Amino acid sequence: MSEQLSNTDLKRLHREWRKRGTNRLGIIIEGVQGPYNIGSIIRSSAAERVDFAWFISGSTTPRNPKTGKTALGTDRYVKWAESPDVEQAIKSAQSEGYSVVGLELTHDAIPIHDADLNTDICFLIGHEDRGVSKRALELCDLITFIPQLGKVGSLNVSIAASIAFYEMRRQGWN
Fold first, then answer.
1. Domains in the chain, CATH or no CATH each
2. pLDDT tens-digit readout, 61-81
3. Calpha distance 67→37 (Å, rounded)
4. The pTM is what?
């Protein structure tokens, strides 16, 4: 029977994995309003070492007290700022060396596992219902989607963000 890792062993394991991921990871959040979704995205951001998060005006931010229910204090590990519009955030991310990757179902989107994410990536995540705006998609360096096999055509925004973060990190593990 397998035995759970001690706290020391768990810290050692995480330290080893941290050395494998050298690329930077960012996120632009456009219009996500649910505080529990934001809290979950922040928690996943802290777990997968998101270097910076841009919150577009109109999005809920980690300042909302309800985000704490799902973030569970992990917001202290994620640097973030509000941006007045998505165009400015995308240009800022690109000027800092990130490739901006929209996570959205479009005609020219490619499956996320086929995208080359082994570089500095900033994922653009859109509104829970409307997704990423057309204007923002036009400015992306690449658009990807997460293939789904079931009868439901979309995932919760926080789950989709977590999968995208993980796939980017997975590709960087050598």
1. 23-172 (3.40.1280.10)
2. 999 999 999 999 999 999 999
3. 8
4. 0.92
